[in-house]
Amino acid sequence: ADLFEGIVMAEQRFHGEGYQEGYAEGSQAGLAEGRRLGALHGARIGSEIGCYLGFALTWHCLLQKCTDEKNSKKIRALDILIGMIQKFPYEDPTYDKLQEDLDKIRGKFKQVCSMLNIQSDFKMGTERSSLTF
Fold it and tell me: PANTHER family attached here (predicted)?
């Protein structure tokens, strides 16, 4: 009876072993793919934020020479944008409001561009990011 039981139960045993091996292999492949996609997405966000910061710092320097009321409002808006970017949690991928803060930075950037009468169009290309005017 034991001899036949091994033969009859072989299909179920092989199915279970195959499932376990497939699950382990899929988990490893999923982790590697997740890391790759996370690094790619993080690099895109970093490039976008870096572009905003460079833009804001450049305009801040350009507008400091003029001290009229219009430019002081623009400088205050640039200061707020720079502050938002500097407080952005780059090192914490588990930050639960990361997307919300990124959207706020994007909104402030658009507001600053509007104040400066600049059309902004941040594009992520395959080669590099660009800001067109």
Answer: GEO13458P1, ORAL CANCER OVEREXPRESSED 1
Element of type H or E holding 124: strand 121-124
How do residues 77-127 score in pLDDT, each as one tens digit?
Answer: 999 999 999 999 888 878 889 899 999 999 999 999 999 988 877 565 545
What is the per-residue pLDDT for 133?
Answer: 46
Distance CA 127, CA 50 (A): 16
SS3 content of the chain, % helix, strand, coil (to 5): 75, 5, 20
Taking each helix axis from N to C end, the angle separating 69-87 and 10-63, rounded to the nearest 10 degrees, works out to 150
Specify the long-range contacts of residues 78-81, CB closer than 8 Å, at least 24 apart.
78/112, 80/108, 81/52, 81/56, 81/105, 81/108, 81/109, 81/112
The H or E element spanning position 129 is strand 129-132
Token pair of 66, please? Answer: 């003029």
Closest of 62, 80, 65 to residue 116, by C-alpha: 62
Q: How far apart are CA 7 and CA 14, in angstroms?
A: 11
